[in-house]
Design a protein that fits this description.
- The chain contains 24 helices and 31 strands.
- It is α/β, with parallel strands linked by helices and 786 residues long.
- Among the domains are: 101 residues, Alpha-Beta Plaits (2-Layer Sandwich); 183 residues, DHBP synthase; 132 residues, 2-Layer Sandwich (Nucleotidyltransferase, domain 5), CATH 3.30.420.
- Strands 7-14-8-9-13-10-12-11-15-16 form a ten-stranded mixed beta sheet, sandwiched between helices. A seven-stranded mixed beta sheet has the order 28-29-25-24-23-30-31, with helices on both faces.
- The longest helix has 26 residues.
- The relative contact order is 0.09.
């Protein structure tokens, strides 16, 4: 309101700000902004976000509210959730920062851990600064957040820093609203904060003057060091030392999967990898994920770092300790997760001694506890924009916004491999950090801890649970024994496509192309090459790859030669298949081939699968590339690397129509591949033709269903689309057909997105206000047509 004299009258307003606004310097920003505008009032943290009461001329209050959103600190992501008018306080003369307050609800967004800022780096390298070379330097713009907090609001007593009493100098910074360390909860210095020490594998402290200097010396000599970081331990070793890298592989039992590499800076990384502007921006952001970048042909690093890949997993230092380590003269460090294969990253000193002691030659420890484990995120650049392969540190627990407010909190439990959980609360979906393969006991324990911690942190009270349709999946079994709330089971590929729809706000119907290893189908078979018409609450199966036996069930996903034999049997018949298998699969004993062939032909432990992922496995074995997957999708990754990108030919693509479904036939494709093998066509050309064939088949599918629905929206989901040749080739061909293409970027294309999709399907079903479905009832909407 403005008076007739033209002078703005005083008003008092209360603003509730949610989003990422705690632990990022938002309150001192508000304090300084209000002081500059000569406004009075206060700002305080609450469990709902940040509460501001501000008093002054109406026009100034408008400018103030606008500046809150447009001039906020770099890590802040504020949103004005509510504005209320309050009575004036005529005696108020200043603006203050008040103590944190509890609120009636928890809608707080916790800020992810952030890479060390330039201001702290300058202090770290300044011999005159009291924090010179202090490995735990931080401020409100950098350092740990999510990994140290165990309750809201984000105040020091609610973090693992509560055991460290600040010295007078640190306390003065913490109390000064004009200081960038005002209420920086991990604030500390060498006098009052965490410290480092170095131990041998038996836990004995090494008697050295400077643990960091000694750790660098050991790394320079080729030793393996376990380094405690923000979200867990890393195992570090020189990347240019073949013996050291091979020793790490042997001790960690990691035969071939690529290791990540930490470089001193972007210029150093460019010596070894091709880094475009999009990758450079991501590598130097506050998030600092591992980014897959193409190798340079002359890179003088150990070939054992990433033996099966054309990419380096490039990582920039993101903690003060990393920056100090990387001041040494080695070109790069292998910096891989500190764990045993298939287990979660280690976070505790004693546990790390027990589990990493047999791997490392020494452990560089510190005494700042890690409350929540969080591995490094992994990303790559797809069509000039980032796309996540593993969502973890730097991204979690920032929520994804959804378009519709949930009726009640929903907890989704994800898949069994590449597991994440998601909590849908109000209009926000909180997707957890990458957890991993639940079949490993320690990972399942981490899954249970993550449920408890994330539920508590966001204040969720699950009114419904969502899980996979597979009855034997560990996440499903957990859901079935949960307390008395409705349980909604969601078919795996429906969840995949729903995750894409949720990220891009697609209403449906959409054309869904789901291609991965295995997902339990509504008919009880193993799906994985699916054409789906998808709505938020249901789907129809409009096409699939002709099913073939998966001899040995899960064993077939570990041993691609089993799938190669199965495809030969389907195409050639028993006798010819075994003859060709003996020729192509030379390292498999003949008696093993005969036993597996008998198993497939007699349908003994040989469920049918329509999986495109298994098709990649089979071809990889047929061309002599990979007989055993020592890590997830190894055969497919090696086949992609082998493929000749200049190859333009494709194998025959043949469909049959059955019960309203368009079925891709296997026999014509495999017969053509066998002809190429028999005539000694080079394996790179065969692999290139195979990739082109998959693109051709998927394009046909999409165009067929787009016309039938009709819809021009095509969603791609599943691990197969992590293959750059497939994804880029398919997007190019579909765009030429005037179709709109969507895939996950903020979430992984793989099973890391499943839990998010599950929450959206569950919410769509609940929004219909039907009675809470039982597991048997919820399969009904997902049945294929016919």
């Amino acid at each position: 309101m403005v008076a007739h004299s033209g002078v703005s009258i005083l008003e008092r307003r209360r603003l509730l700000i949610d989003g990422a606004v705690q632990g990022v310097g938002f309150r001192p920003f508000v304090y300084n902004l209000a002081s500059r505008e000569r406004l009075t009032g206060f700002v305080a943290n609450t469990s709902q976000g940040v509460a501001i009461e501000v008093q002054g001329p109406a026009t100034t209050l408008q400018h103030f509210a606008h500046a809150l959103l447009t001039q906020a600190p770099p890590l802040a992501q504020p949103r004005i959730a509510r504005v209320e008018t309050r009575h004036l306080l005529p005696d108020e003369t200043s603006f203050n920062i008040q103590l944190s307050r509890d609120g009636p609800a928890r809608r707080l967004v916790i800020t992810p851990d952030a890479a060390t800022c330039d201001h702290c780096l300058a202090e770290l390298g300044n011999p005159a600064d009291r924090r010179h070379r202090y490995p735990f330097i931080n401020c409100t713009q950098c350092g740990p957040r999510y990994t140290i907090i165990f309750d809201v609001p984000y105040d020091r007593p609610n973090t693992t820093m509560r055991t460290f009493t600040m010295c007078p100098l640190c306390q003065a910074e913490y109390d000064d609203p004009r200081n960038r360390r005002f209420h920086a909860q991990p604030n500390a210095c060498p006098v009052c904060g965490p410290h480092l020490w170095l131990v041998d594998p038996q836990g004995h402290t090494l008697p050295v003057d400077d643990p960091l200097t000694e750790a660098v010396r050991l790394l320079q000599s080729g030793r393996i060091i376990a380094v405690k970081g923000i979200g867990g331990f890393h195992l570090a070793v020189r990347a240019d030392n073949d013996h050291a890298v091979l020793t790490l592989r042997r001790r960690k039992v990691r035969k071939a999967k690529a290791f990540a590499l930490m470089f001193r800076n972007l210029d150093a990384a460019r010596t070894f990898a091709h880094i475009d502007s999009a990758a450079a921006t991501l590598l130097t952001s506050t998030v600092r994920p591992i980014v897959l970048c193409p190798k340079r042909a002359t890179a003088p690093l150990s070939t054992h770092v990433a033996p099966d890949s054309g990419f380096w997993g490039v990582l920039m230092p993101y903690t003060p300790l990393h920056h100090l380590l990387m001041q040494a003269d080695f070109p790069a460090l292998v910096m891989t997760s500190g764990n045993n294969s298939d287990e979660p990253i280690e976070t505790d000193n004693q546990s790390a001694l027990a589990r990493l002691g047999p791997i490392a030659d020494a452990l560089l420890l510190h005494d700042r506890p890690i409350y929540t484990s969080c591995d490094d995120a992994v990303a790559k650049i797809v069509r000039n924009e980032p796309a996540l392969l593993r969502r973890a540190r730097g991204y979690v627990p920032q929520p994804l916004s959804v378009t519709r407010r949930a009726q009640g909190d929903i907890l989704a439990l994800g898949a069994e491999m590449k597991n994440t959980i998601t909590i849908l609360k109000d209009d926000k979906a909180f997707v957890s950090q990458h957890i991993g393969d639940l079949r490993a006991g320690p990972t399942y324990e981490a899954f249970l801890r993550t449920i408890d911690k994330l539920t508590a942190l966001v204040g969720a009270q699950p009114a419904a649970l969502a899980c996979d349709l597979h009855p034997a999946m560990l996440s499903t079994r957990y859901a079935q024994h949960y307390r008395d709330v409705p349980l909604i089971q969601v078919q795996h590929h429906h969840a995949h496509i729903a995750a894409v729809m949720g990220e891009h706000n697609l209403k449906g119907p959409v054309v869904g192309l789901a291609a991965d290893g295995v997902g339990y189908g509504t008919d009880g078979s193993a799906w994985g090459g699916e054409l789906l018409a998808v709505w938020p609450d249901r789907f129809e199966r409009a096409g699939y790859v002709e099913p073939v036996p998966m001899p040995g069930a899960d064993a077939a996903s570990r041993q691609p030669w089993r799938m190669a034999l199965s495809y030969l049997l389907t195409t050639l018949g028993p006798d010819a298949a075994l003859d060709h298998a003996t020729q192509y699969l030379r390292s498999v004993p003949a008696q093993n081939l005969a036993a597996v062939a008998h198993m497939a032909l007699k349908q003994i432990n040989s469920p049918l699968t329509s999986s495109i992922g298994r098709l990649f496995d089979g071809l990889s074995a047929l061309v002599g590339l990979c007989y055993e997957n020592t890590y997830d999708a190894q055969a497919a990754i090696e086949l992609e690397n082998l493929a000749d990108p200049a190859e333009t030919a494709a194998y025959p693509v043949t469909f049959t129509q059955r019960d309203d479904a368009r079925i891709l036939q296997i026999a014509p494709l495999l017969a053509a591949i066998v002809d190429d093998l028999d005539t000694s066509v080079p394996a790179p050309r065969i692999a290139g033709r195979f990739h082109n064939t998959i693109i051709t088949a998927l394009t046909d599918w999409a165009c067929y269903l787009a016309k039938r629905l009709p819809s021009r929206e095509v969603a791609l989901a599943g691990g197969v689309f992590q293959n750059d040749l497939i994804l880029n080739g398919l997007v190019d061909t579909l765009q030429k057909k005037n179709l709109n293409i969507y895939f996950n970027r903020r979430l992984p294309l793989n099973d890391g997105a499943i839990s998010f999709g599950q929450t959206l399907v569950a919410d769509a079903l609940l929004q219909q206000q039907h009675p809470a479905p039982t597991p048997n009832e919820t399969a009904a909407p997902n049945q294929q047509k016919g």
